Amino acid sequence: MILGEAPGRDEDSMGRPFVGASGKLLRVELQKAGLPLKQCYITNTVKCFPHGTPDKEQINKCSSSYLKEEVQILNPTYILAVGGIALGAVLPGYKIGEVRGTVNPSWISDGFVFPIWHPAYILRNRRRLPEWRLDLENFVALVAVDGGKLEAVL
69: domain CATH number? Predict the structure, then answer.
């Protein structure tokens, strides 16, 4: 599962997550890292265009109902939390700068959360692109690991 923040204008008008410039960067880099996107479920924490950064009320409402229901139905082994808003929805209290690129047990599923910077941040901070690519490569490698082996690592 790839979990984003909220739909932007492009996503809202097309009805699909990650179709704007940020989404293009994410999709291209995940494919370069070897993740077949057809095997991924891509969604957002907040389901409708918030006209700005989602506030805590929007996040709590969506993560307490729609998002939890999605996660329970899909029961993903891995959630790629894209950005701080997505991270806060699946691992409250954590900061993206402190846990990006790490594997964390999820409170919202039986699986694991792997937080990364949002591609919009990377588009504004190109110097972070090599680290971000490495995080994506590490996530793809993680997905390829057997669940039992992963638990032994944690």
Answer: 3.40.470.10
